[in-house]
Amino acid sequence: MDVAGAGKSLVGSSKTYDRLQELKAFDESKAGVKGLVDSGVTEIPRIFIMPPEDLAGGNTSSSGDLTQFTIPVIDLQKIAKDRSGVVSAVREAAETVGFFQVVNHGTPVTVLEDMLAAAREFHELPQVMKGEYYSREMMKKVKYGSNFDLYQSKYANWRDTLFCVMGPQPLHPQQLPRVCRDVTMEYSRQVKELGRVLFELLSEALGLNPDHLEGMDCAKGHSILLHYYPPCPQAELTMGTTRHSDPDFLTILLQDHIGGLQVLSHNSRWVDVPPVLGALVVNIGDLLQLMSNDKFKSVEHRVLANHAGPRVSVACFFTLHLHPTTKMYGPIKELLSEDNPPVYRETSLKDFISYYDNKGLDGNSALAHFML
C-alpha cells in the first residue's frame, strides 16, 4: 500500500470519515507511525486525535508537585553495606510512588547506549525490511507493529514497537532482526539478572523471604519492547502512550535523553520522570499490586507526544505473558489477616492478559475487574 496515500486518506473529512477503514489502511501499510512521518504528513491522521473530553483534562502537568511527589533514585551499590536501608527505600517507593530509578545497577552504560542505538536503528530500517516482522498474531514471539490495541482504543498512539518475548522459553537469536540481535540478547541477560535482585528487595520489603517472589515465577519470564516515538507535527492533539498501568509483575525501562514519561501523582497531577544518565526506571506492575493486596502501587503513567524526536525507549516486562502455566495469582497468603482481608480474587496470567489486551489502553485500570 502507498504510505503517502494512506496518510492523506487517514486525515479525511467529516463527511467521508470511516474510522474502521482508516484503521485498516494504517494497519495494512505495515509502515507504522514512522511511515506517516516519512510520507511528510503535516497534520496527524484523525485516528490519532484525542477526543475532546481527553484533550480537556488530559494535559494538566505540574513541576510544583515535586516537593510532595518525586521519583526516588536508589543506589543499588549500597546493598552490600546497607541492605536494610536499600530495602526501606524500595518499600517506600513501591508503597507511595510506584516508581523509582536505580543507579549502579550493574548493567554497563555502553550496553544501555548500544541498546537505545539498536532500537532506533531497527525502527529506521527501510519499510520493506521492517515489514517482514509486522504482525498482530498473538502468539508470535518477535513482532513489529503500531498500537497493540489499534482496533479497541478511542484513538491511536504516536508510537511504533518491536515486541520480543525473551523467556521463559529462550528465544533463538536468529528470530531477532539482525540490526538489534546481539545487543538485545546481551541486554536481556543483564536486565534478567537485575530483575532477580529487585524481586529479592521487593520480597524483603513485603516482610517475606528474599526468594519469595522469584519462587512465584515473577522473574521466570520477560519481554523486551523497543519503542519508537517519531516527532509529531501536532503533538498537542495526541499521545505517545495513553495513560495506563502495566499488566505485569515489574517493569524496567531504559529511556533516552528526550523525556516525556509522566507519572500520575496521588493528587491527580502529572509529574515528569526525568531522564537520569545511566539510570533505569522501575515501576510496579498490576500483578504485583494484586499479589501485595494493594500494599504496592501500580501507578498510571503516560508518554507525551513530542515535536522533538525521535524518542526511543526500551521496556522490559517481567511476566510469563502467554506461556502456558496453571499457576494462579492472588493476594499472598502470608500478607493476609483479619485486619487485612484479600482485596482481589485469584486469576490466571492468561485471563489477566486477555482481559487487559481486549480492554486496550482505555484509561481504566484492569485491576478493578479482579476485585472481590
UniProtKB/TrEMBL annotation:
Query: What name does the UniProt record give this protein?
Result: Fe2OG dioxygenase domain-containing protein
| Statement: the UniProt record of this protein carries the keyword Membrane | no
Family, similarity comment: Belongs to the iron/ascorbate-dependent oxidoreductase family.
Q: Which UniProt keywords apply?
A: Iron, Metal-binding, Oxidoreductase
Q: Does the keyword Transcription apply?
A: no
Q: Where is the Fe2OG dioxygenase domain?
A: 220-320
Cofactor(s) required for function per UniProt: Fe cation
Supply the source organism for this entry: Clitoria ternatea (Butterfly pea)
- Domain of life per record: Eukaryota
Q: Which SUPFAM superfamilies match?
A: Clavaminate synthase-like (SSF51197)
Cite a single Pfam family from the UniProt record.
Answer: 2OG-FeII_Oxy
Q: Which GO terms describe its molecular function?
A: dioxygenase activity; metal ion binding
Lineage of source species = Eukaryota, Viridiplantae, Streptophyta, Embryophyta, Tracheophyta
